[in-house]
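Checklist before submission:
- one chain only
- standard amino acids only
- sequence pasted in full

Submission:
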Amino acid sequence: MKDATKTVSAGRDRERFEGAVNPPVYRASTILSGSLEELRAKNRTRRGDGVTYGAHGTPTTFALEEALAALEGGYRTRLCGTGVTAVAGPLLCYLSAGDHLLMTDGLYGPTRDFCDGMLRRLGVETSYYDPLIGGAIAQLIRPNTRVIFMESPSSDAFEMQDVPAIAAAARAAGCLTMIDNTWGSPLFFKPLAHGVDVSVQAVTKYVGGHADLLMGAATTTEAAYPALQRGWQELGLNTSPDDAYLALRGLRSVAPRMRQHQEGALALAAWLGAQAEVLEVLHPALPSDPGHALWRRDFTGAASLFGFVLDPEFASQSRIAAMLDGLKLFGVGYSWGGYQSLLIPTDPHRGRVASVWPRPGRAAGRAMRIHVGLEDPEDLIAELDDGFQRMRRLEA
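Returned file contents:
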């Protein structure tokens, strides 16, 4: 079954939901039993494997978990309240005091905060590695290394990681691998098929698709699931059935939305690359990008999010403000993946300790991060063109 069909059909059950096309919202904390023996049977059920208590899952949340697991090609998916929780929760499930974590240096900022904050306080040591290390990561693995975490492409710099090579090195050393797959989504990249044990994503972004919910998800192999399941219950992680319902609605249209996001992003990337003020476009789907070969080998599509680097002459705060403050179609804000386009300044070098940005041979200037929504690309290009004109007219 193709992924586009899975997004429409997975998690639906005509008999279970009395013929309803969409799984209904089950709001519940207490789940009653008809007898003492039924209660005892529920108590013997592994938490998350049945409707036993609202915090362990409801038919609505289970429907979404089943659908996401089908898309990821995984054994089980569990939901939580935010994307960052989908990163932090599994790390807490798999790591203990005295363990060592290898974390990509090109990561989502809140992930770094969690590693340098809570994990450090709990006695877990984090070492950051160059995102471009590939199979050479084997040289960094210690006897107490338990998890290797990836994010491909990297946040803000959009560097591609050699996921299969890193996963193979980890497997040879007995380490578990995790990846933040929010950019590619399970439609454009299948981490578990490339040797990864745990794939996490911010459901907030593409699956939600409408900038009106917060949610995260973690999908695992069968071998990796028991530790995640135990930790999920110990931490009390869950999400509301109302938000799960919204995510299910978003899921049904995510395939055509992703195709439109991709088409628009590539059109804008090409246009930006032709502007004199733009020194470089950071998009792995472009043949000119250093990570293009890895993207082409492992991914089946490209997301809406990419970056570009402005010539320092045009990168003053006043000139960037002149561009951004006059935008109407582009929003100036965070949490990409929704239907509206976004544009903000960013800093790929922020927080890096194991790698540098820009890398040798790459453009040095002010980086911008753009999310291309579902508007017509011609309208978005026209608005950007107006923004560049305002920036050009203003004295530096």
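Reviewer check: The two ends are 55 Å apart (CA to CA).
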